[in-house]
Amino acid sequence: SYAGQGYGLWRATERDGGRPVGLCGVLKRDGLKDPDLGYAFLASAWGRGYASEAARACLDHARRHLRLGRIVAITTPGNVASQAVLKKIGLKAAGVVRLPGKDEDSAYFVSEG
């Protein structure tokens, strides 16, 4: 991803001790016209604010340093917690999208840069 697009995922770690808790970054996913914000965290890290903090920082980096305009994000329609994170950092629900090779739709969010 870094070689092809100049951006990708970063490891998220705890401040105290540096234990890895997840991944977050910007990707260029097949089936989406725009770069998308993606993240995944260990279940032990859920509900502790890591996703919001990391997603906000990656979105800021994408805008300020990568100069990316429109950023999108997808999640499963039933993942209410992830949808709350996306809304919290300023993305807006924009319907659903089905990625190539997938059997189910994804909830689709957009952020204009």
3D architecture notes:
- This protein has 113 residues and is of the alpha+beta class.
- It has one domain (2-111): Aminopeptidase (3-Layer(aba) Sandwich), CATH 3.40.630.30.
- The protein contains 3 helices and 6 strands, in the order αβββαβαββ.
- It has helices spanning 2-5, 50-64, 80-88; strands at residues 9-13, 20-27, 36-41, 71-75, 92-97, 106-111.
- A hairpin with an 8-residue loop joins β5 (92-97) and β6 (106-111).
What can be said about this structure in brief?
About 25% of the residues lie in helices and about 30% in strands. The chain contains three helices and six strands, in the order αβββαβαββ. The relative contact order is 0.18.
CATH class: Alpha Beta
Specify the number of helices.
3
Helix-strand string: HEEEHEHEE
Shape descriptor reads: globular
Overall pLDDT score: 94
Helix content: 10-25%
Give the count of structural domains: 1
Q: What is the CATH homologous superfamily assignment?
A: Gcn5-related N-acetyltransferase (GNAT)
Number of strands: 6
> In angstroms, what separates the terminal alpha carbons?
21 Å
List strands and helices in order, with pairings.
Elements: H1 2-5, E1 9-13, E2 20-27, E3 36-41, H2 50-64, E4 71-75, H3 80-88, E5 92-97, E6 106-111
Antiparallel strand pairs: 1-2, 2-3, 4-6, 5-6
